[in-house]
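Posting for a labmate who doesn't have an account.
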Amino acid sequence: MQNLSGGTRFKCYPGPFSSVSYIELEQHAANYLFENKNNANSLLQDSVYKYLPPLFQWSKFTFTSDAMEMLKTSGLIQKIQDKELALQIIQAYGTIKAAEASFDIYTKYKNQVQEEFNNNPNVKAFSYNQMKKKEKTKDFRDTLEGQLRLLLTQQEGLQLLQTIPNIQPSRIYFTCIEEIDKTIIAIGKECE
């Protein structure tokens, strides 16, 4: 897979991850693999299949505030009788903006360490060989085993595993979701 800067990036495998659970899984995966870096041969194959691909997947989440803009420009926000609820709605949209900023920071730092790993000559050679081999086989087990070996033996791979869980706690996103859920409940009560 080619990234936007022209370098080779490991193939991304599709997975059923939502934004928050994805980040949490990714961080757990990095911790698990780093903790077991000296025991790579004893890692369970199903754990490798579960934890390795998320480290190389990229997601873009779109945060929108269209409804808030509509509330402000139409003057409907001033028509809400319960001023505490109106304030809570405004704060919920602020929470969405904060989550977006946090995710952008997470993505930026992950991208930096991922690029350092991808620019390692051994990783580039592996990626090139895998692209050539891809034409002959659809079996990705060799690819995962090769990725794991590089991740655990190259300094940039170990740095990637150490960095991902330490960029920011996934709890940031759960807090945002809780804040938005409270606002939704308050709106529901107001509409009863």
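Reply:
Got it, the structure tokens are right above this. The first helix runs from residue 19 to 35.
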